[in-house]
Amino acid sequence: MVDLRLRMMTDSDQDTALVVWWRNQPDARTLFFNTDVVTPDTHRSFIATRQPHDLVYMIEVDGQPVGMCALTVDVKAREAEFGRIYIDPEQRGRGYARTAVQRTLWYGFEILRLNRIWIEAFDDNRPILALYESLGLTLIEGQSREVNGRRTVFYEISYETWRLLNADTSA
User: Fold this and answer.
1) How far apart are CA 59 and CA 9, in angstroms?
2) Does pLDDT of 170 surpass 80?
3) How confident is the model at residue 20 (pLDDT cuts 50, 70, 90)?
4) What is the DSSP letter of 69?
5) Which one, 63, 95, 125, 137, has least CB within 10 Å?
6) Distance of alpha carbon 47 from alpha carbon 42, whole angstroms
7) Cα of 29 vs its chain's centroid, Å
């Protein structure tokens, strides 16, 4: 059994080195909205200026970092945006992204008591959109925008839908 955990990202040398390496991979630069080169200084600045509602996680399996993701919470609206997910290329295909999304949804709905979690992704990123759809997120019709010359789409899941889909499971 794999022990996958989410822990808050820090400005430690280890987290910084991994994020810099991951974010500067050619495929990552096509997946993230911000395509700027990430340096140790820009990562540390991001962590230092992050707002308390911006929950940025390292995804760890058996104590080793394999990726990252984030949940940006709007406390007043009781909703959040999930995103910034990236799995190390050598760790893909093992279900880590699915488990990380499931655990983040569980945390958002069961611990933070959110009403809705939404996601924005490039419309040509079929693998991640298929993952979101398989977890019960639905396309928000008519909502999109252009980022870096590419179209994005929005998906969402409500607490009620999530509970119905997960009535017999736990994260």
Assistant:
1) 9
2) no
3) very high
4) E
5) 63
6) 9
7) 15
